[in-house]
Design goal:
By secondary structure, the chain is mainly alpha-helical. The protein has four helices and two strands; from the N terminus they run αααββα. The chain has two domains: about 70 residues, Winged helix-like DNA-binding domain superfamily/Winged helix DNA-binding domain (Arc Repressor Mutant, subunit A); about 40 residues. It starts with a helix and ends in an 18-residue tail after the last helix.
């Protein structure tokens, strides 16, 4: 584990669900000089790596925190699973749309031809 991972983990471990640490706070506390817009993606990747290693890092829309009980952790894991399922649904739908778009392109249409107009209720 490198020093940034360790520092991020220490900040998260000191926070609860009621008081999560935000990405902006992590940037400030860790004195990260990287552009906050690009560091946000790097931070999410870093958090994912820490989770994969085995740390029970939870999150809300407001930041990251360390669970205070197994029940709190289980609740978060349930919400996490629900988000994954929603992403799987979107992925499957996008794959179907991609096949339909390829068919339309093979028929000579362009991507611009496939744009939705105000009268349509769906793309294809």
């Amino acid at each position: 584990m490198d020093h940034i991972q360790r520092a991020v983990l220490q900040q998260i471990q000191s926070r609860s669900h009621e008081n999560p640490v935000t990405g902006a706070e992590l940037i400030r506390v860790l004195q990260i000089t990287e552009d906050p817009k690009t560091f946000g993606a790097s931070l999410r990747e870093l958090i994912n790596e820490l989770r994969v290693i085995g740390y029970p890092i939870c999150a809300t829309g407001n930041g990251y925190y360390w669970p205070r009980s197994i029940e709190e952790f289980e609740e978060y894991v349930g919400r996490f699973y629900h988000r994954i399922e929603k992403q799987r649904e979107a992925y499957a739908s996008l794959q179907n749309v991609m096949m339909r778009v390829r068919t339309e392109l093979a028929r000579g249409k362009s991507m611009d031809d496939l744009k939705v107009n105000s009268q349509q209720t769906k793309l294809l």
